[in-house]
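Weekly structure sync, notes
Attendees: PL, DS, HV (note-taker this week)

Item 1: ABC transporter permease
DS walked through the input record. Source organism listed as Gordonia crocea. Sequence as pasted into the shared doc:
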Amino acid sequence: MASVMRRVSLRNLAAHKVRLVLTVFSVVLGTAFVAGSMTFTASISNAFTSIFDKTAQGVAVQVAPRNPAEMQAVGAQASPGVPLAVVEKLRANRDRLGFDRLAVNYNGLVAVAAADGKALQTGNAPSIGTTFLPPDRAVAKGENTILPGGRGPERPGEIAINATAAEKAGLKVGSKTRVVAGQGLTQPQEVTVVGLLDWPFEVGGFVNVAFDEQTAAKLFSDGQHAGTVSLSAQPGVSDVELQRRVAELLGDTPLKIQTGDEVRQESKDAINRFLQIFTYILLAFAGIGIIVGTFLIYNTFAMIVAQRNRELALLRAIGANRRQVSRSVLTEALIVGLLGAAVGLVAGIGLAAALRAIAVATSGLPDGGLLVTPATVIVTLVIGVVVTMLSAWLPARRASSVAPVEAMRATMAEPRSLRTRTAVGAVIGIVAILITVAAATGQGVGPALAVGLGAVLLIAAVVLTAPALSGPVISVIGVITRPFGKIGQLARTNAGRNPRRTAATAFALTIGLMLVAIIGTLGATFKATIDESLDRDVLADYFVTGVNNGPVPPAVLPAVRDTPGVAEVVGAGMVVGSIDGRNVSGRGIVGGRLSDLVRYTIIDGTDVTPDGMLVDEATARTKGWKVGSVVTFTRADGTPVDVPVVGIYERNDALGPWLVGSAAYEKLMPPATQMLLGIYVLADKGVDSGQLKDRLTDATAKYLTVQVQTNQEYKSAVSSLIDQMLGVLYAMLGLALLVAVLGIVNTLALSVVERRQEIGMQRAIGMARSQVRRMIYLESVLIAIFGAVLGVVLGSGLAVALVRTLREWGIGNPVLPWSLIVQTLIGAAVVGVVAAVWPAIRASRTQPLEAIAGE
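Item 1 (cont.): predicted structure, written out as tokens:
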């Protein structure tokens, strides 16, 4: 009997090819995103790995400063580099240590002008300056190879640039150009390209400008530290042995002493940790697709079981037991899961290829080809099968629980009453609302997590109560179908005929549009908060900022100040250091009176003094600082700097949590490390705004890395950045909406099959094909709007609660994106029409006599 049931399952799938395709497709989307995310991150990781495998070749040991996170982990202070005293100590012990060559490397930020005089755009890829060492002095192999026709830089005013960057910039050997280089980005320098580097590893847009050793040291060092020190081993001395000897010589040191293999592995680990962020984001949206796909699969199998009611009953009558009937349905689910997962795997690989192409073109990521790992294949197949089997389990169980004789008389009976289910859902919903409302009264991480818990419970409540809600809601929104007369009435009746089916069909839209409402509200609130803060607190007419969120050279400040028509200028310097062993960052005032350009309220103490600092009230409360408290900062080189707190101000997003005066800034940030986050500019009264912007642009053009924006342009740029981030999220959410569309298509298509005799009767009594199509369209629109209303209401409420928990970070009052909400509801109606096209056409082609006569 078991083999008979398997043949029945296979023949049933083969006999209903359209139904099979629809069901398989519901599995494809979720699994495609899983496969795509895993393939994308594996491919990018592999590309970076192949690059890092080429780095530090020939380096036996590298001595380098620890990064801030590593310093904090070992309880030590950060270092701006390797002290030159350490370099001399290593050189003095060459034979004792057993190294062959020692190379001192300096590197840092750099911007280079293209042939047109404008900054060479990197597409967010690194743009770095390095130290050129001739082959007879270099330790790392292949990193200083000059292409024929050029040479390495030997004196100030000469550079070598990697060949791909030179081609993009329109530069060649002999070209004159300008560079702005150094951690603080110094004055522009006129340079000549004397050689093109055959760089062994680079990503799209990568720029490497090499200087002679003396120039690199001047640009990228404070004169007391080197960037890194590389050693090659003498014959007979292993890398590990040289590492041990160097460690013994230097003793207890905050420096990292690594072998070349460890340097390469550290780079690989760092990029893999970064890529995990992309993996988590992509898998989160894959999870959304799988969740909504689960409801679609469940809905599909529930309808299939209902349509095969008599067939399954006949199998029971001829000897099949409940377990065999259940297994028959699950066998179909297994086949559907395998097919869907296999197609999803292929689609996911295609998705990964598209994502990789976009990332390579726009983000400077390396192009290393696609990598499909065995783990990707296994995980995709397992998820596809497991999700499908779980989704089909309840319909399979329901199919096996009906007595043969009862089932043979009529179609499967309507499931039991919705009362218990609705009551449980209502209780969960009330608990979820209470949790969410209570969380909205608090601030911080804890309340935000509580809102997340409330969201989970609310979704569960919607799942349970949606069938009971479908009738009343569709009755209300059914008003839009009244102009269509009896056709509209039939559509309303059909949409509310099976509440469970309607709710399950609409759930995909509910989840997708809930997330759209949450993300839209967060985005609108962020933009409103920024606009309000700028309008209320910032008096500046212009902002001078770095391109691509980069730093502004300190030398730009006097150039801006000397521009005719400028009344006042203040720079916002970046302050980094540590307090009590913890790394901190803030702002410092550079060259001007802050109160002339930013409006803020002192609630205790006085305004900022040159050697003092201001703290906002939240930070003062958290740190226990008061007016008169002395805060001890530790600079990157370990030097302590005491700064007294002279005033406490109300929270102000333009200032951040704390800032120091100009003299304190100079002490905390030595000249070689100084960078500006931006420059505030106040214009003289009566100055033409357009002319002054042109003057400022001309005055700063030679620095390559800065841009001048008006107050409105700055706000628009920030809003545009937020919109870009939201656009990516909305594009990802398109998956859930696509699943929703297919869910409606699937449900309506199967519903048309289920109602074939009914539609045939309607055709027989005079309903035209166009009226049949119209009825299906309206039914689909009602289901789609029902799901959209639930999603928008749920998402808006959760978004408001979430925003209120973020007040601790300066987020303003919630702003609902009403235009987006209206567009969403209209879009839901459009989705309903689009989803109904094929089922409606299929229904309109029903032949009346065949439908009435057929089973």
